[in-house]
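This follows on from our talk about sequence and fold. Can you supply me with one protein entry, sequence and fold together? Could you add the entry underneath, on a fresh line?
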Amino acid sequence: MNATAVRERAADLPSDPGVYLFYEGEHVRYVGKAVDLRARVRSYADPRSDRIRRMVDAADRIDVAVTDTETQALLLEANLIKRHQPRYNVRLKDDKSYPLVQLTGHDAPRIEVTRDPDEGATVFGPFTDKSRVETVVKAIRETYGLRGCSDHKYRGRDRPCLDYEMGLCSAPCTGEIDPDSYAEDVRAAVRFFEGETGALADPLRREMEAAAQAQSFERAANLRDRLETVESFHGAGGDAVADPADERTVDVLGAAVEGDRATVARLHSECGQLVDRSRHRLDAPDGEDRVGALLAAFVPQYYADRELPDAVLCSERPDDPEVIAWLETEGVSVRVPGAGREAKLVDLALKNARRRSGGDDAAVRLADELGLDGRIERIEGFDVSHSGGKAVVGSNVCFVDGSAETSAYRRKKLTERNDDYANMRELVRWRAARAVDGTDDRPDPDLLLIDGGDGQLAAARDALAETGWDVPAVALAKADERIVTPDGVHDWPADASHLHLCQRVRDEAHRFAVQYHGTVRDEVSTALDDVPGVGPETRRRLLRRFGSVENVREASVDDLRDVEGVGEKTAAALARRL
Protein backbone atom coordinates (compact mmCIF):
# COMPACT_ATOMS: atom_id res chain seq x y z
CA MET A 1 0.00 0.00 0.00
CA ASN A 2 1.23 3.50 -0.76
CA ALA A 3 0.83 6.53 1.52
CA THR A 4 -2.32 7.68 -0.25
CA ALA A 5 -4.04 4.32 0.20
CA VAL A 6 -3.15 4.28 3.91
CA ARG A 7 -4.57 7.78 4.46
CA GLU A 8 -7.76 6.92 2.59
CA ARG A 9 -8.27 3.78 4.71
CA ALA A 10 -7.57 5.73 7.92
CA ALA A 11 -10.17 8.35 7.03
CA ASP A 12 -12.88 5.66 7.15
CA LEU A 13 -11.94 4.50 10.66
CA PRO A 14 -13.45 5.63 13.98
CA SER A 15 -11.47 7.50 16.62
CA ASP A 16 -12.00 4.69 19.13
CA PRO A 17 -9.69 2.22 20.85
CA GLY A 18 -9.04 -1.02 19.02
CA VAL A 19 -6.73 -3.25 17.06
CA TYR A 20 -5.64 -2.96 13.43
CA LEU A 21 -4.25 -5.71 11.16
CA PHE A 22 -2.18 -5.27 7.99
CA TYR A 23 -2.78 -8.11 5.52
CA GLU A 24 -0.76 -9.38 2.58
CA GLY A 25 -3.21 -11.60 0.72
CA GLU A 26 -4.64 -13.95 3.33
CA HIS A 27 -1.70 -13.56 5.70
CA VAL A 28 -1.63 -11.19 8.67
CA ARG A 29 1.71 -9.37 8.52
CA TYR A 30 1.33 -6.91 11.40
CA VAL A 31 -0.98 -6.36 14.38
CA GLY A 32 -1.11 -3.16 16.42
CA LYS A 33 -3.25 -1.57 19.12
CA ALA A 34 -4.44 2.01 19.27
CA VAL A 35 -6.19 4.46 21.59
CA ASP A 36 -7.40 6.23 18.43
CA LEU A 37 -7.60 3.88 15.44
CA ARG A 38 -7.94 6.67 12.86
CA ALA A 39 -4.87 8.61 14.05
CA ARG A 40 -2.73 5.53 14.60
CA VAL A 41 -3.37 3.96 11.18
CA ARG A 42 -2.83 7.33 9.47
CA SER A 43 0.70 7.44 10.97
CA TYR A 44 1.68 4.46 8.78
CA ALA A 45 1.61 6.76 5.75
CA ASP A 46 5.03 7.84 7.04
CA PRO A 47 6.50 4.64 8.60
CA ARG A 48 8.90 5.06 11.52
CA SER A 49 11.43 2.37 10.48
CA ASP A 50 12.64 0.49 7.41
CA ARG A 51 11.09 -2.73 8.65
CA ILE A 52 7.64 -1.17 9.04
CA ARG A 53 8.06 0.57 5.67
CA ARG A 54 8.63 -2.83 4.03
CA MET A 55 5.55 -4.18 5.78
CA VAL A 56 3.35 -1.31 4.58
CA ASP A 57 4.66 -1.65 1.01
CA ALA A 58 3.82 -5.37 0.99
CA ALA A 59 0.35 -5.00 2.57
CA ASP A 60 -2.74 -4.83 0.40
CA ARG A 61 -5.46 -4.14 3.00
CA ILE A 62 -6.09 -3.11 6.62
CA ASP A 63 -8.76 -4.53 8.93
CA VAL A 64 -9.69 -3.26 12.37
CA ALA A 65 -11.52 -4.44 15.50
CA VAL A 66 -13.00 -1.77 17.79
CA THR A 67 -12.87 -2.33 21.57
CA ASP A 68 -14.50 -0.57 24.52
CA THR A 69 -11.28 0.11 26.42
CA GLU A 70 -7.54 0.43 25.90
CA THR A 71 -6.97 -2.65 28.08
CA GLN A 72 -9.20 -4.73 25.84
CA ALA A 73 -7.17 -3.53 22.85
CA LEU A 74 -3.95 -4.49 24.61
CA LEU A 75 -5.10 -8.06 25.32
CA LEU A 76 -6.70 -8.51 21.91
CA GLU A 77 -3.46 -7.42 20.25
CA ALA A 78 -1.50 -9.94 22.33
CA ASN A 79 -3.83 -12.80 21.45
CA LEU A 80 -3.89 -11.95 17.74
CA ILE A 81 -0.07 -11.83 17.64
CA LYS A 82 0.13 -15.24 19.30
CA ARG A 83 -2.49 -16.66 16.96
CA HIS A 84 -1.21 -15.30 13.64
CA GLN A 85 2.53 -14.92 14.40
CA PRO A 86 2.79 -11.88 12.08
CA ARG A 87 6.11 -11.54 10.37
CA TYR A 88 6.70 -7.90 11.33
CA ASN A 89 5.65 -8.01 15.01
CA VAL A 90 7.83 -8.69 18.01
CA ARG A 91 6.22 -12.07 18.58
CA LEU A 92 6.64 -14.59 21.31
CA LYS A 93 7.80 -17.98 20.10
CA ASP A 94 6.80 -20.58 22.68
CA ASP A 95 9.94 -22.00 24.25
CA LYS A 96 10.64 -25.67 23.82
CA SER A 97 8.79 -27.96 26.18
CA TYR A 98 11.27 -28.86 28.89
CA PRO A 99 11.39 -32.40 30.26
CA LEU A 100 9.24 -33.32 33.25
CA VAL A 101 9.27 -36.35 35.52
CA GLN A 102 5.93 -38.02 36.10
CA LEU A 103 4.69 -40.71 38.46
CA THR A 104 1.55 -42.01 36.81
CA GLY A 105 -1.75 -42.42 38.64
CA HIS A 106 -1.73 -46.25 38.48
CA ASP A 107 -1.97 -48.52 41.50
CA ALA A 108 1.70 -49.28 40.79
CA PRO A 109 2.88 -45.89 39.42
CA ARG A 110 5.30 -45.76 36.53
CA ILE A 111 8.17 -43.24 36.61
CA GLU A 112 9.37 -41.67 33.38
CA VAL A 113 10.77 -38.56 31.75
CA THR A 114 8.20 -36.93 29.49
CA ARG A 115 7.27 -33.67 27.82
CA ASP A 116 3.56 -34.54 27.75
CA PRO A 117 2.43 -35.81 31.19
CA ASP A 118 -0.60 -38.05 31.64
CA GLU A 119 -3.78 -36.77 33.21
CA GLY A 120 -3.82 -37.58 36.92
CA ALA A 121 -0.03 -38.04 37.14
CA THR A 122 2.16 -36.53 39.84
CA VAL A 123 4.51 -34.26 37.89
CA PHE A 124 7.84 -32.66 38.84
CA GLY A 125 9.78 -30.08 36.88
CA PRO A 126 10.28 -28.66 34.35
CA PHE A 127 14.01 -29.32 34.18
CA THR A 128 16.51 -27.82 31.73
CA ASP A 129 19.00 -30.69 31.38
CA LYS A 130 17.40 -33.89 30.15
CA SER A 131 20.54 -35.99 30.57
CA ARG A 132 20.75 -35.09 34.27
CA VAL A 133 17.08 -35.92 34.74
CA GLU A 134 17.53 -39.30 33.04
CA THR A 135 20.54 -40.04 35.28
CA VAL A 136 18.46 -39.27 38.37
CA VAL A 137 15.48 -41.33 37.19
CA LYS A 138 17.74 -44.30 36.50
CA ALA A 139 19.26 -43.95 39.98
CA ILE A 140 15.76 -43.90 41.49
CA ARG A 141 14.79 -47.01 39.58
CA GLU A 142 17.93 -48.87 40.64
CA THR A 143 17.48 -47.78 44.26
CA TYR A 144 13.72 -48.14 44.68
CA GLY A 145 12.74 -50.46 41.83
CA LEU A 146 10.02 -48.28 40.30
CA ARG A 147 8.69 -49.58 37.03
CA GLY A 148 9.27 -47.74 33.77
CA CYS A 149 7.35 -50.01 31.38
CA SER A 150 4.25 -49.17 29.36
CA ASP A 151 0.80 -50.36 30.39
CA HIS A 152 0.85 -52.79 27.48
CA LYS A 153 4.00 -54.51 28.77
CA TYR A 154 2.83 -54.33 32.41
CA ARG A 155 -0.54 -56.02 32.01
CA GLY A 156 -1.00 -59.78 31.92
CA ARG A 157 2.55 -60.85 32.75
CA ASP A 158 3.21 -64.23 34.35
CA ARG A 159 6.91 -63.63 34.99
CA PRO A 160 9.10 -60.55 35.49
CA CYS A 161 10.76 -58.84 32.53
CA LEU A 162 14.44 -58.08 31.92
CA ASP A 163 14.27 -54.88 34.00
CA TYR A 164 13.71 -57.03 37.08
CA GLU A 165 16.74 -59.17 36.25
CA MET A 166 18.84 -55.99 35.80
CA GLY A 167 17.74 -54.54 39.13
CA LEU A 168 15.78 -51.66 37.60
CA CYS A 169 12.32 -52.81 38.72
CA SER A 170 10.89 -54.68 41.72
CA ALA A 171 8.26 -56.30 39.44
CA PRO A 172 4.94 -55.30 41.01
CA CYS A 173 3.36 -56.76 37.85
CA THR A 174 3.90 -60.33 39.10
CA GLY A 175 3.71 -59.69 42.84
CA GLU A 176 7.45 -59.85 43.50
CA ILE A 177 6.85 -56.87 45.81
CA ASP A 178 3.69 -56.25 47.84
CA PRO A 179 1.61 -53.09 47.10
CA ASP A 180 2.38 -51.41 50.45
CA SER A 181 6.14 -51.78 50.02
CA TYR A 182 5.96 -50.50 46.44
CA ALA A 183 3.91 -47.51 47.61
CA GLU A 184 6.58 -46.73 50.22
CA ASP A 185 9.25 -46.76 47.50
CA VAL A 186 7.13 -44.37 45.44
CA ARG A 187 6.86 -42.03 48.44
CA ALA A 188 10.65 -42.06 48.77
CA ALA A 189 10.98 -40.95 45.15
CA VAL A 190 8.42 -38.20 45.75
CA ARG A 191 10.38 -36.99 48.77
CA PHE A 192 13.49 -36.68 46.60
CA PHE A 193 11.77 -34.61 43.90
CA GLU A 194 10.20 -32.42 46.58
CA GLY A 195 13.72 -31.47 47.72
CA GLU A 196 14.87 -34.17 50.14
CA THR A 197 18.16 -34.97 48.41
CA GLY A 198 19.15 -37.54 51.03
CA ALA A 199 16.24 -39.78 50.06
CA LEU A 200 18.32 -40.82 47.05
CA ALA A 201 21.84 -39.60 47.86
CA ASP A 202 22.16 -41.60 51.12
CA PRO A 203 21.47 -45.06 49.65
CA LEU A 204 23.71 -44.22 46.67
CA ARG A 205 26.54 -43.23 48.99
CA ARG A 206 26.19 -46.47 50.96
CA GLU A 207 26.25 -48.49 47.76
CA MET A 208 29.32 -46.59 46.51
CA GLU A 209 31.20 -47.24 49.76
CA ALA A 210 30.29 -50.94 49.66
CA ALA A 211 31.53 -51.21 46.05
CA ALA A 212 34.81 -49.53 47.00
CA GLN A 213 35.32 -51.91 49.94
CA ALA A 214 34.68 -54.85 47.62
CA GLN A 215 37.30 -53.39 45.25
CA SER A 216 34.69 -52.97 42.51
CA PHE A 217 36.32 -49.69 41.60
CA GLU A 218 34.64 -49.18 38.22
CA ARG A 219 31.22 -49.65 39.83
CA ALA A 220 32.21 -47.30 42.65
CA ALA A 221 33.34 -44.64 40.14
CA ASN A 222 30.04 -44.87 38.26
CA LEU A 223 28.13 -44.51 41.53
CA ARG A 224 30.31 -41.55 42.50
CA ASP A 225 29.45 -39.74 39.25
CA ARG A 226 25.77 -40.51 39.71
CA LEU A 227 25.90 -39.30 43.31
CA GLU A 228 27.41 -35.98 42.20
CA THR A 229 24.54 -35.50 39.76
CA VAL A 230 21.95 -36.35 42.43
CA GLU A 231 23.49 -34.06 45.05
CA SER A 232 23.59 -31.10 42.64
CA PHE A 233 20.10 -31.73 41.26
CA HIS A 234 18.30 -29.30 43.59
CA GLY A 235 21.17 -26.84 43.94
CA ALA A 236 20.71 -24.28 41.11
CA GLY A 237 19.65 -20.81 42.19
CA GLY A 238 19.31 -21.63 45.87
CA ASP A 239 20.93 -18.43 47.11
CA ALA A 240 18.50 -16.23 45.23
CA VAL A 241 15.18 -17.55 46.46
CA ALA A 242 12.61 -14.91 47.30
CA ASP A 243 11.71 -14.03 50.86
CA PRO A 244 8.73 -16.13 52.11
CA ALA A 245 7.29 -12.91 53.51
CA ASP A 246 7.00 -11.52 49.98
CA GLU A 247 4.02 -12.00 47.69
CA ARG A 248 2.69 -15.53 47.28
CA THR A 249 3.67 -15.78 43.57
CA VAL A 250 6.42 -13.78 41.90
CA ASP A 251 7.62 -13.85 38.29
CA VAL A 252 11.09 -12.51 37.52
CA LEU A 253 11.77 -11.39 33.94
CA GLY A 254 15.26 -10.84 32.56
CA ALA A 255 15.55 -9.69 28.95
CA ALA A 256 18.53 -9.67 26.60
CA VAL A 257 18.80 -8.37 23.03
CA GLU A 258 21.65 -9.26 20.68
CA GLY A 259 21.33 -8.11 17.08
CA ASP A 260 18.01 -9.39 15.80
CA ARG A 261 17.93 -12.06 18.52
CA ALA A 262 16.02 -11.51 21.76
CA THR A 263 15.41 -13.72 24.78
CA VAL A 264 13.28 -13.31 27.90
CA ALA A 265 14.07 -15.61 30.82
CA ARG A 266 11.32 -16.13 33.39
CA LEU A 267 11.82 -17.43 36.92
CA HIS A 268 8.74 -18.29 38.97
CA SER A 269 8.68 -18.28 42.78
CA GLU A 270 5.88 -19.54 45.00
CA CYS A 271 5.89 -18.86 48.74
CA GLY A 272 9.60 -18.09 48.66
CA GLN A 273 10.65 -21.17 46.66
CA LEU A 274 11.96 -20.98 43.11
CA VAL A 275 9.83 -23.64 41.39
CA ASP A 276 9.99 -22.97 37.65
CA ARG A 277 12.13 -21.38 34.97
CA SER A 278 11.77 -20.97 31.22
CA ARG A 279 13.33 -19.12 28.29
CA HIS A 280 11.38 -17.51 25.47
CA ARG A 281 12.63 -16.29 22.12
CA LEU A 282 11.29 -13.25 20.29
CA ASP A 283 12.30 -11.11 17.34
CA ALA A 284 14.28 -8.12 18.58
CA PRO A 285 12.29 -4.86 18.48
CA ASP A 286 13.32 -1.64 16.74
CA GLY A 287 14.24 1.56 18.54
CA GLU A 288 16.62 2.72 21.26
CA ASP A 289 15.00 1.21 24.40
CA ARG A 290 14.99 -2.27 22.95
CA VAL A 291 14.79 -4.14 26.28
CA GLY A 292 11.89 -2.00 27.48
CA ALA A 293 10.10 -2.55 24.16
CA LEU A 294 10.85 -6.28 24.33
CA LEU A 295 9.30 -6.63 27.80
CA ALA A 296 6.33 -4.50 26.74
CA ALA A 297 5.70 -6.95 23.87
CA PHE A 298 6.36 -10.07 25.95
CA VAL A 299 4.21 -9.35 29.01
CA PRO A 300 0.76 -9.10 27.39
CA GLN A 301 1.44 -11.97 24.97
CA TYR A 302 2.66 -14.27 27.74
CA TYR A 303 0.03 -13.44 30.36
CA ALA A 304 -2.96 -12.98 28.08
CA ASP A 305 -3.94 -16.63 28.58
CA ARG A 306 -2.12 -17.39 31.86
CA GLU A 307 -2.80 -16.66 35.51
CA LEU A 308 -1.12 -13.45 36.62
CA PRO A 309 1.35 -13.55 39.55
CA ASP A 310 1.17 -11.25 42.55
CA ALA A 311 4.30 -9.42 41.44
CA VAL A 312 6.52 -9.09 38.39
CA LEU A 313 10.18 -8.16 38.83
CA CYS A 314 11.84 -6.83 35.67
CA SER A 315 15.38 -6.11 34.58
CA GLU A 316 14.03 -2.92 32.98
CA ARG A 317 10.62 -1.28 33.10
CA PRO A 318 8.35 -2.13 30.12
CA ASP A 319 8.17 1.02 28.02
CA ASP A 320 4.42 0.82 27.30
CA PRO A 321 2.37 2.66 29.99
CA GLU A 322 -0.72 0.70 28.96
CA VAL A 323 0.99 -2.57 29.89
CA ILE A 324 1.93 -1.20 33.33
CA ALA A 325 -1.56 0.19 33.85
CA TRP A 326 -3.15 -3.15 32.93
CA LEU A 327 -0.98 -5.10 35.38
CA GLU A 328 -1.60 -2.63 38.20
CA THR A 329 -5.34 -2.67 37.50
CA GLU A 330 -5.20 -6.47 37.90
CA GLY A 331 -3.46 -6.07 41.26
CA VAL A 332 0.03 -7.02 40.02
CA SER A 333 2.96 -5.12 41.48
CA VAL A 334 5.60 -4.23 38.86
CA ARG A 335 9.08 -3.50 40.19
CA VAL A 336 12.63 -2.99 38.92
CA PRO A 337 14.69 -3.84 42.02
CA GLY A 338 18.07 -2.16 42.50
CA ALA A 339 19.51 -4.15 45.39
CA GLY A 340 18.85 -6.96 47.82
CA ARG A 341 17.33 -10.39 47.37
CA GLU A 342 15.02 -9.29 44.55
CA ALA A 343 17.96 -7.85 42.61
CA LYS A 344 19.71 -11.23 42.93
CA LEU A 345 16.72 -12.90 41.34
CA VAL A 346 16.76 -10.41 38.48
CA ASP A 347 20.50 -11.03 37.99
CA LEU A 348 19.83 -14.77 37.83
CA ALA A 349 17.11 -14.21 35.23
CA LEU A 350 19.48 -12.04 33.18
CA LYS A 351 22.13 -14.77 33.24
CA ASN A 352 19.54 -17.21 31.90
CA ALA A 353 18.49 -14.74 29.20
CA ARG A 354 22.07 -14.13 28.08
CA ARG A 355 23.00 -17.82 28.09
CA ARG A 356 23.84 -18.86 24.58
CA SER A 357 22.31 -22.17 23.56
CA GLY A 358 24.03 -23.32 20.37
CA GLY A 359 21.63 -23.18 17.49
CA ASP A 360 18.65 -21.73 19.43
CA ASP A 361 18.28 -18.68 17.21
CA ALA A 362 18.83 -20.57 13.98
CA ALA A 363 16.55 -23.42 15.08
CA VAL A 364 13.71 -21.07 15.92
CA ARG A 365 14.10 -19.17 12.66
CA LEU A 366 14.23 -22.40 10.68
CA ALA A 367 10.97 -23.58 12.24
CA ASP A 368 9.42 -20.18 11.62
CA GLU A 369 10.44 -20.09 7.95
CA LEU A 370 9.26 -23.67 7.35
CA GLY A 371 5.95 -23.09 9.14
CA LEU A 372 6.62 -25.72 11.81
CA ASP A 373 5.29 -25.42 15.35
CA GLY A 374 7.69 -24.67 18.21
CA ARG A 375 11.39 -24.94 17.47
CA ILE A 376 13.51 -27.46 15.63
CA GLU A 377 15.66 -29.02 18.31
CA ARG A 378 16.79 -32.23 16.58
CA ILE A 379 17.69 -32.54 12.88
CA GLU A 380 18.79 -35.72 11.11
CA GLY A 381 20.67 -35.45 7.81
CA PHE A 382 20.81 -38.10 5.07
CA ASP A 383 23.11 -38.61 2.08
CA VAL A 384 24.11 -41.43 -0.26
CA SER A 385 27.56 -42.09 -1.75
CA HIS A 386 28.76 -44.59 -4.35
CA SER A 387 31.03 -45.02 -7.38
CA GLY A 388 28.95 -45.81 -10.44
CA GLY A 389 26.56 -47.93 -8.41
CA LYS A 390 29.33 -49.79 -6.58
CA ALA A 391 30.04 -49.69 -2.82
CA VAL A 392 26.71 -47.88 -2.25
CA VAL A 393 26.32 -46.52 1.29
CA GLY A 394 24.11 -44.11 3.16
CA SER A 395 24.78 -41.76 6.06
CA ASN A 396 22.41 -40.62 8.83
CA VAL A 397 23.86 -37.82 11.00
CA CYS A 398 22.23 -35.96 13.86
CA PHE A 399 22.40 -32.37 15.12
CA VAL A 400 20.87 -31.29 18.45
CA ASP A 401 20.51 -27.59 19.25
CA GLY A 402 22.77 -26.75 16.32
CA SER A 403 25.64 -29.05 17.32
CA ALA A 404 26.63 -32.43 15.92
CA GLU A 405 25.71 -35.35 18.19
CA THR A 406 28.14 -37.93 16.84
CA SER A 407 26.91 -40.67 19.18
CA ALA A 408 23.64 -40.60 17.22
CA TYR A 409 25.30 -41.02 13.80
CA ARG A 410 24.40 -44.15 11.83
CA ARG A 411 25.52 -45.56 8.46
CA LYS A 412 24.26 -48.33 6.22
CA LYS A 413 25.37 -50.35 3.22
CA LEU A 414 22.74 -50.15 0.49
CA THR A 415 21.78 -52.20 -2.54
CA GLU A 416 24.36 -51.74 -5.32
CA ARG A 417 22.73 -49.76 -8.10
CA ASN A 418 23.35 -46.50 -9.89
CA ASP A 419 20.06 -44.86 -8.86
CA ASP A 420 20.32 -42.00 -6.36
CA TYR A 421 16.56 -41.77 -5.86
CA ALA A 422 16.12 -45.47 -5.12
CA ASN A 423 19.15 -45.38 -2.83
CA MET A 424 17.75 -42.45 -0.85
CA ARG A 425 14.35 -44.16 -0.63
CA GLU A 426 15.99 -47.29 0.78
CA LEU A 427 18.06 -45.30 3.29
CA VAL A 428 15.15 -43.26 4.66
CA ARG A 429 12.84 -46.31 4.67
CA TRP A 430 15.42 -48.13 6.80
CA ARG A 431 15.53 -45.30 9.34
CA ALA A 432 11.76 -44.83 9.34
CA ALA A 433 10.97 -48.52 9.75
CA ARG A 434 13.31 -48.77 12.74
CA ALA A 435 11.66 -45.75 14.32
CA VAL A 436 8.16 -47.11 13.80
CA ASP A 437 8.86 -50.60 15.15
CA GLY A 438 10.88 -49.27 18.10
CA THR A 439 14.24 -50.85 17.21
CA ASP A 440 15.98 -47.46 16.91
CA ASP A 441 16.78 -46.14 20.39
CA ARG A 442 17.13 -42.52 19.24
CA PRO A 443 14.34 -39.95 19.73
CA ASP A 444 12.36 -38.97 16.66
CA PRO A 445 13.85 -35.86 15.03
CA ASP A 446 11.95 -32.63 14.46
CA LEU A 447 13.17 -32.47 10.84
CA LEU A 448 14.81 -34.67 8.21
CA LEU A 449 17.29 -32.88 5.91
CA ILE A 450 17.99 -34.66 2.63
CA ASP A 451 21.13 -33.93 0.62
CA GLY A 452 19.70 -33.37 -2.85
CA GLY A 453 16.83 -31.76 -4.72
CA ASP A 454 13.26 -32.52 -5.73
CA GLY A 455 13.95 -36.13 -6.72
CA GLN A 456 15.74 -37.09 -3.51
CA LEU A 457 13.08 -35.36 -1.41
CA ALA A 458 10.27 -37.16 -3.27
CA ALA A 459 12.03 -40.48 -2.70
CA ALA A 460 12.42 -39.75 1.01
CA ARG A 461 8.76 -38.74 1.34
CA ASP A 462 7.73 -41.95 -0.42
CA ALA A 463 9.64 -43.90 2.23
CA LEU A 464 7.97 -41.93 5.02
CA ALA A 465 4.53 -42.56 3.55
CA GLU A 466 5.22 -46.29 3.16
CA THR A 467 6.22 -46.68 6.80
CA GLY A 468 3.83 -44.18 8.34
CA TRP A 469 6.60 -42.21 10.07
CA ASP A 470 5.24 -38.68 10.50
CA VAL A 471 8.33 -36.45 10.41
CA PRO A 472 8.70 -33.34 8.19
CA ALA A 473 11.40 -33.53 5.52
CA VAL A 474 13.15 -30.96 3.34
CA ALA A 475 16.10 -31.10 0.94
CA LEU A 476 19.13 -28.91 0.32
CA ALA A 477 21.09 -29.23 -2.91
CA LYS A 478 24.65 -27.95 -3.31
CA ALA A 479 24.09 -26.45 -6.75
CA ASP A 480 22.01 -23.43 -5.73
CA GLU A 481 21.82 -23.73 -1.92
CA ARG A 482 18.04 -23.49 -1.89
CA ILE A 483 15.77 -25.41 0.51
CA VAL A 484 13.26 -27.64 -1.27
CA THR A 485 10.02 -28.44 0.57
CA PRO A 486 6.84 -30.23 -0.50
CA ASP A 487 5.22 -26.80 -0.87
CA GLY A 488 7.91 -25.02 -2.83
CA VAL A 489 11.46 -23.66 -2.74
CA HIS A 490 13.00 -21.26 -0.19
CA ASP A 491 15.78 -19.00 -1.43
CA TRP A 492 17.14 -17.58 1.82
CA PRO A 493 19.90 -14.94 2.10
CA ALA A 494 23.40 -16.39 2.00
CA ASP A 495 24.12 -15.07 5.51
CA ALA A 496 20.92 -16.41 7.09
CA SER A 497 21.69 -18.34 10.29
CA HIS A 498 18.96 -20.92 9.62
CA LEU A 499 20.43 -21.62 6.16
CA HIS A 500 23.87 -22.05 7.73
CA LEU A 501 22.40 -24.60 10.15
CA CYS A 502 20.96 -26.60 7.26
CA GLN A 503 24.25 -26.38 5.37
CA ARG A 504 26.18 -27.73 8.36
CA VAL A 505 23.87 -30.71 8.62
CA ARG A 506 23.98 -31.33 4.85
CA ASP A 507 27.77 -31.04 4.67
CA GLU A 508 28.26 -33.36 7.63
CA ALA A 509 25.93 -35.97 6.12
CA HIS A 510 27.93 -35.74 2.87
CA ARG A 511 31.27 -36.02 4.66
CA PHE A 512 30.15 -39.01 6.71
CA ALA A 513 28.75 -40.77 3.62
CA VAL A 514 31.90 -40.20 1.55
CA GLN A 515 34.09 -41.38 4.40
CA TYR A 516 32.12 -44.59 4.79
CA HIS A 517 32.02 -45.10 1.02
CA GLY A 518 35.81 -44.89 0.94
CA THR A 519 36.04 -47.52 3.65
CA VAL A 520 33.66 -49.89 1.89
CA ARG A 521 35.24 -49.28 -1.50
CA ASP A 522 38.70 -50.02 -0.14
CA GLU A 523 37.45 -53.33 1.22
CA VAL A 524 36.58 -54.43 -2.31
CA SER A 525 39.18 -56.18 -4.45
CA THR A 526 40.19 -54.10 -7.45
CA ALA A 527 42.51 -54.36 -10.43
CA LEU A 528 45.07 -52.48 -8.34
CA ASP A 529 45.63 -55.59 -6.22
CA ASP A 530 47.33 -57.31 -9.18
CA VAL A 531 49.95 -54.58 -9.60
CA PRO A 532 53.37 -55.34 -8.06
CA GLY A 533 54.29 -52.89 -5.34
CA VAL A 534 50.66 -51.87 -4.57
CA GLY A 535 49.61 -53.00 -1.12
CA PRO A 536 46.43 -52.13 0.82
CA GLU A 537 47.74 -48.77 2.06
CA THR A 538 49.00 -47.66 -1.36
CA ARG A 539 45.73 -48.78 -2.92
CA ARG A 540 43.79 -46.63 -0.43
CA ARG A 541 45.97 -43.62 -1.21
CA LEU A 542 45.49 -44.07 -4.94
CA LEU A 543 41.72 -44.35 -4.64
CA ARG A 544 41.58 -41.44 -2.23
CA ARG A 545 43.60 -39.30 -4.67
CA PHE A 546 41.90 -40.30 -7.94
CA GLY A 547 38.47 -41.49 -6.78
CA SER A 548 38.24 -44.73 -8.81
CA VAL A 549 40.30 -47.35 -10.64
CA GLU A 550 39.21 -45.78 -13.94
CA ASN A 551 40.73 -42.47 -12.90
CA VAL A 552 43.94 -44.21 -11.82
CA ARG A 553 44.08 -45.86 -15.27
CA GLU A 554 43.81 -42.45 -16.97
CA ALA A 555 46.39 -40.74 -14.76
CA SER A 556 49.86 -39.92 -16.11
CA VAL A 557 52.99 -41.54 -14.68
CA ASP A 558 54.00 -38.18 -13.17
CA ASP A 559 50.63 -37.86 -11.43
CA LEU A 560 50.94 -41.40 -10.11
CA ARG A 561 54.41 -40.68 -8.75
CA ASP A 562 52.97 -37.75 -6.74
CA VAL A 563 51.09 -40.23 -4.56
CA GLU A 564 52.91 -41.14 -1.37
CA GLY A 565 54.34 -44.69 -1.55
CA VAL A 566 54.31 -44.85 -5.35
CA GLY A 567 57.82 -44.91 -6.72
CA GLU A 568 59.02 -44.88 -10.34
CA LYS A 569 58.79 -48.68 -10.75
CA THR A 570 55.31 -48.88 -9.21
CA ALA A 571 54.07 -45.97 -11.32
CA ALA A 572 55.41 -47.68 -14.46
CA ALA A 573 53.79 -50.98 -13.42
CA LEU A 574 50.46 -49.22 -12.87
CA ALA A 575 50.62 -47.56 -16.28
CA ARG A 576 51.58 -50.87 -17.92
CA ARG A 577 49.09 -53.16 -16.14
CA LEU A 578 46.09 -50.84 -16.18
